[in-house]
Design goal:
It is an enzyme of class 2 (transferase). Keywords: Lipid biosynthesis, Lipid metabolism, Phospholipid biosynthesis, Phospholipid metabolism, Repeat, Transferase. This is CDP-diacylglycerol--serine O-phosphatidyltransferase. One of its GO terms (molecular function) is CDP-diacylglycerol-serine O-phosphatidyltransferase activity. By secondary structure, the protein is α+β, with helices and mostly antiparallel strands. It has two domains: 61-271, Endonuclease Chain A (Endonuclease, Chain A), CATH 3.30.870.10; 286-420 and 422-489, Endonuclease Chain A (Endonuclease, Chain A), CATH 3.30.870.10. Helix content is 36%, strand content 18%. It contains 15 helices and 19 strands. It has a nine-stranded mixed beta sheet, sandwiched between helices. Strand 3, helix 4 (100-115) and strand 4 (120-126) form a beta-alpha-beta unit. Helix 3 packs parallel to helix 4 and helix 8 packs parallel to helix 9 (317-328). The longest helix has 17 residues, at 5-21. The chain is globular, with a radius of gyration of 22 Å. The termini are close together.
């Protein structure tokens, strides 16, 4: 995930204010559908002895599962899918940016709708993220201004819905992945803007999959319609007089409680030997979070190998403990992480420093501590840590691969924020016959292509070598132990 710029800046400014003025911001922070008659999927109750095989599945033809390998390939595929749509387009993203790439998607959507007036087009983005500017331009109207502009040009064709997962962006955003175009699920962690779609000179590397599956597409659309579009908390962003967040607060609280309980609804299927199984999963909050529980189960049940990708190394305590147990049990663990220079918040030492630019260094310090704790496993070959870096591009890849059987497509960053605050989802793929093994290996090789191995702590920068403004800020954060709070909400 690309963390919300406003929320992160606010957090670090709270800390900076606390350190400078002896205020107490830390205390303040503390202070299914009838149309297709699908049956309701009951949420499994995991225990340590539960079986991943018992999760209900949707059968998937491996020939209708396609892995894309680059941001540019993804952009072209997304535009092609939109242009060829016949019945429905559901775009679900954290944000659809007002920039060259975002406007190319907008033009594609409106052209498709004009060619085919019966085409259903629904756009969902995060409510808070859509209504504010980027770093340095916080007073701007945000992407909602673009949605209103298009509504004035093409009245009544498309509605842009804002989904408020929480009363404040700081405490939770819409982080669902998976757009649906006809019967194809276009699944990626990427939002829609220039860098995610490699529109200009740089790209943000992610994972990209096209899954042609009517049952899966219907389940995801049904969830969007029943629990998001139909919610009293979800409002149009393209109207000239949008409602205020303040007026929505009671509805937002009800929406969040509802989203914490619900899962995708579909008829489970028995998979033939020529098929793989897909289980769509949802998660929000600490309790009854099926996605979190499934991620833990994947690591608990691993017998010989685990591969984990995350752009921001800040694992929840429960996940760190399970990884440590897996290593003790002799399971090989491969960790692929973005280098601090591959973070979307990194700035070069000679550039103007802002508080937000300290984040990549915080993540690197987390990784250094992890390397120190697990050095014996690195030396024995059980643990390998790969740092991704490629020119001025950034890294946004996340997911798991376990025992050559299971893999997880997800936007979950495997950090406390994803674990507790944001609305997340994922697609668990069960492939006991290895029908997708070639695609998986090609994708992994592509991810590893621009990585280097970490052999010891000396392969990472230390606090002593950080730019002076970063060093000063991190020392002050550590002095008041604010880092523990930051790790929970970043």
């Amino acid at each position: 995930m690309r963390h919300s710029c406003v929320e992160l800046t606010a957090i670090l400014r709270f800390v900076d204010s606390f350190l400078s003025d002896q205020a107490d911001p830390l205390l303040q922070l503390a202070k299914h559908s009838a149309s297709n008659q699908e049956s309701i999927l009951m949420t499994p109750r995991f225990s340590r002895n539960a079986s991943l095989q018992s999760l209900p599945k949707i059968a998937q033809d491996p020939l209708q599962f396609k892995t894309l390998l680059s941001a540019e390939e993804y952009r072209l595929a997304l535009l092609a899918q939109i242009a060829e749509a016949k019945t429905r387009i559901y775009i679900v993203a954290l944000y659809l940016e007002d920039d060259q790439a975002g406007r190319s998607i907008m033009e594609g959507l409106y052209s498709a709708k004009q060619r085919n007036p019966e085409l259903e087009v629904v756009i969902l983005v995060d409510w808070h993220r859509a209504q504010r500017g980027l770093i340095g331009d916080e007073q701007a109207e945000g992407n909602a201004a673009m949605y209103r502009e298009y509504e004035q040009r093409y009245p009544g064709l498309i509605t842009f819905y804002g989904v408020p997962v929480s009363n404040r962006e700081l405490f939770g955003v819409l982080h669902l992945k998976g757009s649906i175009i006809d019967d194809t699920v276009v699944y990626s962690g990427a939002s829609i803007n220039n860098i995610y779609l490699a529109q200009q000179q740089r790209y943000r590397f992610d994972r990209y999959h096209l899954i042609d599956n009517t049952r899966l597409a219907n389940a995801m659309v049904d969830y969007v319609e029943q629990y998001l579009v139909n919610s009293e908390a979800v409002s149009s962003l393209s109207t000239n007089e949008p409602v205020t967040t303040r007026s929505l607060k009671p509805a937002i609280r009800r929406l969040r409680l509802s989203l914490q309980r619900e899962q995708y609804s579909y008829y489970p299927q028995q998979c033939e030997e020529s098929e793989v199984g897909i289980t769509p999963l949802l998660g929000l909050g600490r309790r009854q979070n099926l996605l979190n529980k499934t991620i833990r189960q994947l690591i608990i049940k691993a017998s010989h190998q685990i591969t984990i990708c995350t752009p921001y190394f800040n694992p929840p305590g429960s996940l760190s403990r399970e990884i440590s147990k897996a290593l003790k049990n002799g399971v090989k663990v491969k960790l692929i992480v973005g280098d601090k220079t591959a973070s979307d918040f990194y700035s070069k030492p000679d550039e103007n420093f802002k508080v937000i630019h300290a984040l990549p260094y915080l993540y690197e310090l987390n990784l250094s501590k992890f390397v120190k704790r697990q050095l014996k496993y690195i030396n024995s070959g059980l643990l390998s840590i790969h740092l991704w870096s490629h020119q001025d591009n950034s890294f946004h890849v996340k997911g798991l691969w376990v025992d050559e059987r299971y893999s997880l497509l997800t936007g979950n960053n495997l950090n406390p924020r994803a674990w507790n605050l944001d609305l997340e989802n994922g697609l668990l793929i069960d492939d006991p016959k290895g029908l997708l093994s070639e695609q998986k290996q090609v994708e992994l090789n592509n991810i590893l292509a621009h990585t280097k191995l970490v052999h010891c702590v000396a392969d990472l920068d230390s606090l002593a070598n950080y730019p002076l403004p970063v060093k000063r800020l991190l020392k002050r954060i550590n002095r008041v132990r604010a880092d523990r709070l930051l790790k929970q909400i970043l």
